[in-house]
Amino acid sequence: MLLPHFAVRKLASTPASALGGTIVLMFLLLALFGPLIAPYGLNEQLYDEARQPPSAAHWFGTDHLGRDVFSRVVLGTRDVLALAGLGTLLAVLSGASLGLLSGYLGGWFDEILMRFFDSLLALPAMLLALLLLGTLGPSASSILLVIAVVYTPIVARVARSVVLAVKSKAYVEAARIQGESLARILFREILPAVLPALAVEASLRFSYAIFLVASLGFLGVGVQPPSPNWGLMVSEARQHVSQLPWMMVYPAGAIALLVIGVNLLADGLKRVIMGNDYL
Amino acid sequence: MSELPVLRIEGLTVAYRSSKGWLEATRQVSLEVGAGETVGLVGESGSGKSTLALAVMGYLPNGRIQSGRIRFRGQDLLALRREEMRQLWGRQIGLVPQDPLSALNPSLRIGEQLGEGLRLHLGLNKADAAARALRLLEMVHVPDPPRVATSYPHQLSGGMQQRVMIAMAFGLEPALLILDEPTTNLDVTTQAAVLALLEELIAQRQTAVLYVTHNLGVVARICNRVAVLYAGELLETAFTTDLYRQPLHPYTRGLLDSVPQVGQRHASAPLQTIPGQIPSLGNRPDGCVFVPRCALATEKCHTERPLLHTPTPTRTSRCHFWQELVASKEWGGTSEAPVVNGQFPISNPQAPISNSSSPLLRLTDVSVTFRKRGWRKGVRAVHEVSLTTARGETLGLVGESGSGKTTLARAIIGLTPRSSGEIELLQLRLPPALSARSRAMRRYVQYVFQNPEEALNPAITIGETLQRPFVTLQGLSRQEAQAAALSLLQAVRLPPEYAQRLPGQLSGGEKQRVAIARAFATNPDLLIADEAVSALDVSVQAAILNLLYELQREHENALLFISHDLAVVGYLADRIAVMVDGQLMEIAPAETLFTPPHHPYTAVLLSAIPNPNPQAQQAPISLADEVGRGASTAIGCPFQGRCPRSLGVLCQTQRPPWRELPGNKRVFCHLPVEEL
After folding, report:
1. B583 shares its domain with B609
2. Which residue on chain B is closest to A190 by alpha carbon?
3. Domain check: are B493 and B608 in the same one?
4. For position A36, what pLDDT does the model report?
5. CA nearest B236: which of B43, B10, B37, B4?
6. Has residue B447 been placed in a domain?
7. Are A178 and B434 within 8 A, CB to CB?
8. Looking at CA atoms only, how far is residue A86 from chain B in angstroms?
9. What is the CATH number of the domain that holds B509?
10. In a mutagenesis test of the B interface, which of A171, A182, A187 is the best target, namely the one with the most B β-carbons within 10 Å?
């Protein structure tokens, strides 16, 4: 586990982090048990109950096609969390590996890789994402790839900066003297020192990834209808916003709530792991 | 009224907050410092000596004073409000900290910093303060005061920075001065100069001084009285001469025994060690705090906390058995140890000094140059060093910081590739870079690092750390490696349970034992120990030195032992090489190095070491100029800029010859043999 018990207790004792943790936990439960919680199916159309405002029967109201908004928001959780989570995981794996290698080897390899990452970072994330999706075509796997490509340079830089501080420590030099392999030095000797910073960065990236997934859905280049992607739902609601505002308010609120929750949790993690003076 | 001591600490207990409640860092410590008196506060890390010093300064951000009083000229400091305390700081009570660079403001010129305090406390105007600052710099013998006054702190050497701090502290002529390890980070030669300066100023001004240090040599040199602190308790106080002649507490006795004197050899006078380690604040033993480590402990010591006895009106001892210590004849203090006053028994002549067979390690003209970006010439850290070592021999390498001794060691192991020259081990040429060396070559040479805190990976258990060399370099299976790791633990006298522990659960000395065990895993022909004991407390240092000696006897490996501490090197080494600015100055057998004739630099080094024996102090030879450091050139002698016996143009322009001296010494000097 990345976090020892004391860290969890410390997180829980800060109100903001506890709130963030609760929000994230709630969405995780929704993602896991969504089909049990949602009263209606994803694309189940209730023809005589279309365009209903929120009520006891339909908590978040129904949309122009008679679909239950609450059910769609609940069922959409899985979509957002899975895409953002897997994408972040990919970015962290590739970013950490490249960062470790680049920082440890140094020299030309480091120089070339870092300049390449610099040039990627010079482009706005959204532009890069649109460019890639335009080439790859919209699909779940291309969204994963986009998140990985956009965030790998950032994660790699964080990992690299820690490696630079650790690689001249005596225990790494001792491992070199003992003839340890490159892989062992990187992943057994150096990686443990990088993990705390990586955990903080991963949680931050996750919150950005949620936003990115929703934004791509909104722009229509991500997951395609009738998928319950929150961004897509907001986009669909645009034409009806004057008559059916709940169609937009609830999915947009879900995005905001989840991103805030993840951010609060990330801030707490940072405090616990890096100490108060970091921030 | 003038009889009142300047500082009087009465039964002071300071506690720090921890997760387990308040932990007492000092317990009922009482101490007095009179005008013109220098009291040494001696203790190892964790003894509470810094806490005590900070408490006097009224600066305990995380701690609180639970009981006791601190009186300054009769006035209760603890009752003062912060505003009143501020009037005393600097003006009445001065402080010289350990690390001058972090105490000086990096963005203010030296002159302005000195003047700031003068203006604030004495109400001087800018011009007067500046003039006074210059006079203060003259007072601390800074070369070229106007230039120093317009310099920024980072432009000065460590010794110069400390002189500036001293000027600042004495500038307001405080009645009480607290010196917190002021010379610990300095080289011996610089330390000697700073100590001489302190002595002079203290004598002139009749300042009361509380001198906090762990170095018993420095205490003997500068203090009138000594207070020995251990685990927060005062164990003994005495006049310096009395304490060194006959300590009346087993801990003091152990401390004095565990520091090698200059010229003391393991072969003739092995160090006595204190077993165990200082207890943490949370689990101090009941009864006497020293009881787990004391050879004299009885039932009474375990249950009953000893009182602070007063054997004579001028000294105290917190030991139940101080009377037995007074009576015991077999131990009379270090002044009667076998090696003192320049007489060194020349022991076992059959020791392998240089045997006729081919040497184990041969360095030929090894140079290391660091190339930096934007530097056309690069920095030459090691310059044309040639050396040999035989099997079973211990070669000591001595030099001040920046002399290139660590770089030379790293070039031998391959961590820092050499730029030119040859390194042969067992007549096998070692490639410059570690990555180019075969497994066998890596097995032959092993390394023990300076800082035990960084030598072991905090995320890997001791057991795994010790297994790795067997797996990677010897090709043993996991099971075999496990068994081998356990026997290694035993070899360095650690219990087998330690295999499951992480480095964070070990003390510094234990970590260094593990690091030594790892180095011996491959049964190396050459072991390099780079300042392997300098980060350890004195009582632990002796045990590690003896361990290195015993392991070397067992394995018959050659040992390259590097240290800035000539006494420590002399204790272990068969031969000693002295380095200055990347070049060798002298190579001599350890038996003869400490007796004249010397290379001028060796003479300076020897005179600079504060001897832990108040009777055997000698006046240090002062160096010509501290500014000449690091400006060495390929032509001429690297030491000529600072050499007290420089011949001028000859030394500046021509490389000295290697001269043979009686006693198998070789020195690199222009001075003819008869004049050395």
Report:
1. no
2. B457
3. no
4. 85
5. B43
6. yes
7. no
8. 28
9. 3.40.50.300
10. A171
Strand order in the sheet with B7-18: B21-33, B7-18, B63-72, B75-76
pLDDT digits (tens, 9 = 90+) for B23-59: 889 999 999 999 989 999 998 888 889 899 989 988 8
At A200, which amino acid appears? V
| Of A107-121, B289-303, B457-471, B633-647, the least confident | B633-647
Out of B154, B173, B192, pick the residue that ends a domain.
B173
Q: Identify whether B558 is part of a domain.
A: yes
Do B468 and A177 make contact, defined as CB atoms within 8 angstroms?
Answer: no
Does B353 fall in a domain? no
Same domain assignment for residues B60 and B162: no
Residues from B in contact with A at Cβ < 8 Å: 413, 415, 434, 439, 442, 446-447, 449-451, 454-460, 468-469, 472-473, 515, 518
Determine the residue type at B15: A
Q: Which chain A residues are within 8 Å of B518, Cβ to Cβ?
A: 174, 178
Residue B349 banded pLDDT, cuts 50, 70, 90: very low
Å from A106 to nearest chain B CA? Answer: 15
CB contact under 8 A, B472 and A178: yes
Phi, psi dihedral angles at B71 (to 5 degrees) = -110, 130
The DSSP line for B79-143 is GS-HHHHHHHBTTTEEEE-S-HHHHS-TTS-HHHHHHHHHHHHH---HHHHHHHHHHHHHHTT-S
Q: Which of B216-220, B474-478, B511-515 has the highest mean pLDDT?
A: B511-515
Question: Are residues B181 and B166 part of one domain?
Answer: no
Q: Which domains does chain A have, with CATH numbers?
A: 5-274 (1.10.3720.10)
Task: Give one DSSP letter per residue of B27-73, joined into a string.
Answer: EEEEEEE-TT-EEEEE--TTSSHHHHHHHHHT--TTEEEEEEEEEET
* Residues of A within an 8 Å Cβ radius of B: 169-181, 188-189, 192-193
Q: Which residues of B touch A178 (CB under 8 A)?
A: 442, 468-469, 472-473, 518
**Residues B314 and B440 occupy one common structural domain:** no
B385 in the same domain as B292: no
Residue-range definition of the domain harbouring residue B384: 361-591
Of A170, A178, A189, Cβ closest to residue B451: A170
Look at chain B and report how many structural domains it folds into. 4
B409 CA: distance to closest CA in chain A (Å): 13
B259 to chain A, closest Cα gap in Å: 27
pLDDT over 50 (residue B60): yes
pLDDT band, very low/low/confident/very high, at B345 (cuts 50, 70, 90): very low
Give the one of B449, B468, B469 whose C-beta lies nearest to A170's C-beta. B449
The band of B376, judged by pLDDT with boundaries at 50, 70 and 90, is: low
Residue B349 lies in a domain: no
Range from A83-92, B144-153, B537-546, B614-623 carrying the lowest mean pLDDT:
B614-623
In this complex, the residue of B434, B458, B459 whose CB is nearest that of residue A177 is B434
Is B413 within 8 Å of A177 when comparing Cβ atoms? yes
Tell me, rounded to whole angstroms, the distance of Cα B71 from its chain centroid: 32
Select from A172, A179, A192 the Cβ nearest to the Cβ of B472: A179
Average pLDDT score over residue span B486-511: 92
Instruction: Tell me the three state secondary structure of residue A28.
Output: helix
Q: Which two tokens stand for residue B77?
A: 């400091």
Res. B624: pLDDT tops 60? no
Picking from B132, B155, B173, the residue at the C-terminal end of a domain is B173
Residues of chain A with pLDDT under 70: 1-6, 275-279
Put simply, the answer to whether B447 touches A177 (Cβ < 8 Å) is yes
The span from the CA of B309 to the CA of B315, in Å, is 8
Of the pLDDT bands very low, low, confident and very high (cuts 50, 70, 90), residue B609 is confident
**Is there a single domain that holds both residue B110 and residue B159?**
yes
Interchain CB distance below 8 Å, B458 and A192: yes
Q: How far off is chain A from B540, nearest CA to CA, in Å?
A: 21
Distance of alpha carbon B509 from alpha carbon B544, whole angstroms: 7
Q: What would the two tokens of residue A84 be?
A: 């953002």
What residue in B sits closest to A174 (Cα-Cα)?
A: B455
Residues B125 and B86 in one domain: no
The pLDDT value given to residue B365: 94
- Residues A107 and A97: their CA atoms lie apart, in Å, by 17
